[in-house]
Amino acid sequence: MREDPNFVRDQFPCVGEFQFDIIRREPLPDGDIGLVACSRTSRRDKPENYRKGVHFFVDDTRFRKFRNNVEANLGTYSLYRFLLSPDFSRYREMREWQMIEAIGMNRWCGAWWQSKGLHVIPSVGWGSRWSLRYCFLGVEQNAPVAVTTNGNRRDKPGYLYGYDAMLERLDPSAIICLGKPFPEMRGPIIYVPYDYFGREVGDGRQ
Fold first, then answer.
1. Residue ranges per domain, the chain?
2. pLDDT digits (tens, 9 = 90+) for 166-199
3. Which of 31, 110, 185, 189 fits a disulfide with 23 by CB distance 3.0 to 4.6 angstroms?
C-alpha cells in the first residue's frame, strides 16, 4: 500500500510549503488549438478531434475518479494531442484545505500524465485571495497555461484580480482561455469558445 502511487503520490519533484508536484513546461502545440471536454472523449471519436486537447473544465463528478485511480482513461486520453491538467473546483466558500487539495491533485495528475509521455498544459485557477499564496505553485514560469471564464462572470473583479496575479507570477508564454475572455484580460490569449459537451470547440486566436 505504501508503494502505491495513488496513495503515496511523492515520486515527482515538488515545490513550496505544501509540496505541490511540478508540471514541467512544455511548448504549446503547433497550429490551431481546439479542445474537447473530458466527458466527450472516446476511442471511437472523430479523427479530427484527436488533433485537439482534452479539457476538464466540467463538473468534478465527471473526473473525480482520478483521486483514486489516475490510470482511468489513460489509453483514451493518449489518443489526443494534449491534456490540460484537471480543474478540481476551488470555490471561495470552501475551506482552505479543500482548495489546497484541489490544486495539489491538479499538479500531481499533470505530472503523472507527463511521466507516461503525454503532453500536458497546466490549467490554472484560484479561489479566495488567500489562495494566491499557493495557487500558482507547481507551474513553471513562461509556460503555456489554460484558464476558463466559464462560471466566473458573477465575480468579475475577483477573477480579474487572480488573473492579473497569474500574469505577474508566471508570465505565461500563452494562455488558452476556454470561454470568452473579459475585455480587461491581458496577455497572449488564445480564445477557444466554450461548449460544455465539446462539440464546437474551434480555434479563436486573438
1. 5-205
2. 999 999 999 999 999 999 999 999 999 976 544 4
3. 110
